[in-house]
């Protein structure tokens, strides 16, 4: 895959991301109000010209972002705090179309800082049982869906860090990262074996209670991904 086609892949939103972003835009414009009920899945699918599974995926994204509240037997409603949630701001920045290479670098740089901070906290707060869970995870050799395997590793580190704010940001980051950056990264020859090796080094630092080493290794891991993709 050449550089131009890689960046085109990184720069393209999924249908679900696009629908979630459009709904957020309508909220920000005041065309959908806080506490207002959204149409049902069938009606939304007709309005957007997609199937219901795509609508469900978009609603799942919006629920993760705390934009909507899905009430069983009642419907889907806009939350009061949808405009100011950290997740909403991060999602809009990451999912925008038309990112140039400089903007893409800014995104990766920000994600690297967040993930490195989580690794540092994880090294300070890891319990014996969590250390065993991390060690076991990096011995798993994924047979397919490498992007999801990568996401789950980083979210596990975030869980061990025990920072609710960083975890909320990380969850939002990976909505986008798993469908774009990771998927493109693992198309590169040798990327999977390098990622596995780096993950193991990060785990060694975390389980060895070496916060600064964990920070540096995680930061380097994301910078490697940036250079590999660009």
Task: Offer a concise description of the structure.
The chain has 230 residues and is mostly helical. The protein has helices at 3-10, 15-28, 41-48, 52-64, 86-95, 101-125, 128-137, 146-161, 164-177, 181-185, 191-207, 211-229, and strands at 68-71, 75-78.
Model description:
The chain is mostly helical and 230 residues long. 69% of the residues lie in helices and 3% in strands. The protein contains 12 helices and 2 strands. The chain has a two-stranded antiparallel ribbon with strand order 1-2. The longest helix has 25 residues, at 101-125. It is globular.
SSE inventory with pairings:
Blueprint (H helix, E strand, L loop, with lengths): L2 H8 L4 H14 L12 H8 L3 H13 L3 E4 L3 E4 L7 H10 L5 H25 L2 H10 L8 H16 L2 H14 L3 H5 L5 H17 L3 H19 L1
Antiparallel strand pairs: 1-2
Percent strand equals under 5%
Biggest sheet record: 2 strands, antiparallel
Shape: globular
Number of strands: 2
Strand neighbour order, sheet with most strands: 1-2
| Poorly predicted regions | 1-7
Following the backbone from N to C, one meets helices and strands in this order, namely: HHHHEEHHHHHHHH
N-C termini distance: 12 Å
Query: Helical residue percent?
Result: 55-70%
Structural class: mainly alpha
On the 0-100 scale, what is the average pLDDT?
Answer: 83
Structural Rg:
19 Å
The total count of helices amounts to: 12
